[in-house]
Amino acid sequence: MSPVEIGMISVVAIVTLVYLGLYIPIALGLVSFVSIWIISGKSILAFNFLKVAVGDGVTEYEFATIPLFTLMGLLVSKAGLGRDIYEVMNSAFRRVLAGIGMATVGANAVFAAITGSSIASASVFTKISVPEMLSFRYNKRFAVGVVAGSSVLGMIIPPSAMLIIYAFVAEQSVGHMFLAGIIPGLILTAAYIAAIFAMARLWPSYIGKDIRADETAAMSWSEMATKAWPIVALIIMVLGGIYTGWLTPVEAGAAGASLALIVALLRRSINWEGFWSTLVETGHITAAILLLITMASFYSRMLGFAGLPNELNQVLNSWELSFFQIMLIYVVLMLVLGTLLDTASIILIVVPLFITLIEGMNLSLIWFGIVTVIGAEIGLLTPPLGISCFVIKSTLNRPDISLKDVFLGALPFAAIMLCVLIILIRFPVLSTALLN
After folding, report:
1. Under DSSP, is residue 188 helix (H, G, I), strand (E, B) or coil?
2. Packing angle between helix 65-78 and helix 249-266, nearest 10 degrees?
3. Strand pairing partners for 138?
4. What is the rounded CA–CA span in Å between residue 53 and residue 25?
5. Which residues 6+ apart lie within 8 Å of 61 measured at CB?
6. DSSP for 2-54?
7. pLDDT per position as a tens digit, 362-391
8. Residue ranges of the domains in the chain?
C-alpha cells in the first residue's frame, strides 16, 4: 500500500476506534504510531515522531491558558455566579413573552464568557432554569431545548476550550481565536433570542400553555448591580484585557482565576477543602486536554508524513469545485461526524486534513476555526452522541422527561446554529472584524 492509502485507512481506523469507545488520545496515538511504523518500516522513526510531538507540544507557553481558564471556570461555579446571572437576566426579560427562555439564553451567554464550558453550562442551567420554566407551565421539550441549545455557546464565546484546542492544532494565536469568537457568539445568542420571540408569537403551543410576561418578580437596580458586578468585572478583565492588548491570554487567565477566587472567598462559598478539590479537578482536566493536544500533534505529523492533506488538496482541486461547494462538503462531513463523535474528536481528526487546502485558497485559518467549532458544536445537540443532551437528561433525573424529549427540544436550536454557520461562511468578515 502507498503512504496515502495507509493515511486514509488510519483516519477511518481512528474514527472507528473512538466510536467504539476507545479513549481519544489513545486512539490518535496508537493509530499514528502504527501508521508511521508501517509507512517507514522503522519503529524508531515512529518513536522519534512521538518524541518531537511531546517535546514541541507541552513546552508551548500558551498551554498555560488551559489550567488557568479551567480553574477560573470551576471557581466561578463554586461562587454560585451561574444562579446570579440567571436571576439578573430573568429580571431583565420579565416583561417579554417567553422571557424566561430568553433569560436562559442570555445567562448562558454570559456564563460562557467566564467559564468556556458547554458541559458546565448545561449542568448549571438544567438545575436552575428548567424547574423554573416548568413551574410556569412551559412545554417540557422547550424548557430542556433552550438549555441544550444555549449551552453550546460555551464552545464559541471565549474563553473556550475548543478554541484553544483548534488554535494549537492549526498553530494560530489563542488570543486571536478568542477575539474571533466574540461576534459569532453574540450573533448566535441574538439568533436564539429572536427565534424564541418569534416562536412565542407564531408557535405558542410549542412554548407552553398560558405563559405570559411578568412571570417573575422584578429586582431593584441595586440588587441587580450587586449580583452582576463580579460577572462584569471578570468579563472586562479577561476579554477586555485581551482585546486591548494589556494582557496576554495566559495573563488574562491568571487574572480571571485570581478574581474568581477572591469572589468565592468573599461569598464564603469555598473553604480550604473545596479549594484543594478544585485544584485537583483542574489538574485532571488539564492533564486530559494536554494529552489530547499532544496526541493530536502526533496525528497531524503522521498525516503530513503520509502526504494525505496534499493528496486531498490535489483531488479537490482537480474537481474544480467552487468555494461554497468545498465548504458544503466540509460542513456535511462535520454534521455526519457530529452524530458519531464529540466536538474535540471532530476538530482533531478533520482539521489536519483540510488545513492545507484552506491555506492554499488563501483563506483565514482564524475564520476557518470559528466555522469548524460551530459546525462541530451542532453535534452536541444531535443523536446519538449529543453530549449536552445526555448531560441535561442525567442532571434532571426526571422520569417524565425522556432523552427523546431533550433531543427533540434541542432540534430547532440545532437548525438555528446551522443557519448562523451558513451566514458566517458567507460573510467571513464577521469572524475577523475584531482582528483588523
Report:
1. helix
2. 20
3. 208
4. 13
5. 250
6. -HHHHHHHHHHHHHHHHHTT--HHHHHHHHHHHHHHHHHS-HHHHHHHHHHHH
7. 889 999 999 999 988 887 787 766 777 777
8. 3-435
